[in-house]
Design a protein that fits this description.
It is built from twelve helices and 14 strands. The protein is α/β, with parallel strands linked by helices. It has one domain: Rossmann fold (3-Layer(aba) Sandwich), CATH 3.40.50.720. The protein starts with a strand and ends with a helix.
Length: 348
């Protein structure tokens, strides 16, 4: 099988490369290191690409910008991939406001370029689109929330398992990043439903793992650990540090993608995060990292939340578990924190 992965030097993309290379498949990675352009040296993924080249057997990298329609279509015509994993994106709320046209071109236009290339050259090949929970905008903040000692939580039992896929995505404040990703999410659904293509849309919660190149604007847990271990300065933006995220390891993300590849449903949407069991607030994450590292985190509190930020977001994994009974979370929060700390403490 030949697998094409975009954003192949990033967190989920590199996990996809390793996942399929280890299983004996040919992997073509598409990545032009725009993360370095977005975030500077801290976001540069060259180190991860070099590791992939050294540690894999059947992987090759192609430097193509997904906005370059001609080059992308030519690549699909040449490669005819059997499975597509589309992870390339501009991933930051805050950065999108500085580069709105670039953000939309990468996230929305780049995605339809990918979908159309697949429709023209390999329409029957399963296609996974990595979306985001930010397509819901700040609508989750309108729910009945309760404030506990260290976190916010849902006050309505209907949301005990978290946010499900039928939650509204419009009439809310998204941030420009959330809007561009919502456009990509909907067009991916449309290619699945209108053209009956095996396109699956996965709305990620907080995706994490040691292959992240975290920066302040993106990569919550990995950046927190990096700051703690490196002795840097961390800023908490609003909500008293009680904002909650559900965290999923990149390996469990790939297990979900593989489950979909084996049993694709055209245009289907899945919320994909760590669920309630892997949910953690900023304050709780601070305490855990300080416990594991033995170091106090130098931080300041900024009394202004990020635009469109969620006070409490937990992915309801019911649909994933029903559609793919063999899939579930295998790496809990303790395992994730421990791996991140060990990776950050490892000499470069």
């Amino acid at each position: 099988m030949k697998v094409l992965v975009t954003g192949s030097s990033g967190l989920i993309g590199s996990q996809a490369v390793r996942f399929y290379d280890e299983r004996g498949h040919d992997v073509v990675g598409v990545d032009n290191n725009m993360r370095a352009e977005f975030f500077g040296a801290g976001g540069d993924t060259t180190w991860n690409l070099e590791q992939l080249k050294q540690q894999t057997q059947r992987f090759r990298s192609v430097d193509i910008d997904i906005r370059d329609r001609g080059s992308l279509f030519a690549l699909f015509a040449d490669e005819q991939p059997d499975f597509i994993v589309h992870c390339a994106a501009q991933p930051s709320h805050d950065k999108a406001a500085d580069i709105p046209l670039v953000d939309f071109d990468v996230n929305a236009v780049g995605t339809i370029n990918m979908l159309e290339a697949a429709r023209q050259h390999c329409a029957e090949s399963p296609f996974v689109h990595m979306s985001t929970n930010k397509v819901y905008g700040d609508a989750p903040n309108d729910l009945d929330l309760i404030e506990l000692e260290t976190r916010f939580d849902y006050g309505d039992d209907a949301y005990a398992n978290g946010i499900a896929e039928d939650f509204r995505i419009d009439q809310s404040l998204h941030s420009l990043f959330g809007a561009s990703k919502a456009a990509a999410d909907i067009v991916a659904q449309e290619y699945g439903r209108y053209f009956d293509m095996p396109v699956g849309i996965f709305r990620g919660g907080c995706l994490t793992g040691p292959a992240h190149s975290p920066v302040e604007l993106h990569g919550f847990l990995a950046y927190l650990v990096k700051t703690a271990v490196g002795g840097g300065h961390y800023r908490i933006f609003g909500y008293k540090g009680k904002q909650v995220r559900d965290n999923i390891h990149s390996f469990d993300v790939l297990r979900a993608f593989e489950a979909y590849r084996s049993n694709p449903r055209p245009g289907e949407v899945y919320n994909l995060g760590g669920g309630r069991g892997n949910s953690v607030s900023m304050l709780e994450a601070f305490a855990k990292v300080e416990e594991l590292t033995g170091q106090s985190i130098d931080f300041e509190y900024v009394d202004e939340n990020r635009v469109g930020d969620h006070m409490c977001y937990i992915s309801d994994l019911t649909k994933m578990r029903e559609h793919f009974p063999g899939w579930d979370i295998t790496l809990d929060l303790d395992a994730i924190f421990t791996e991140l700390v060990e990776a950050a403490q490892r000499p470069e």
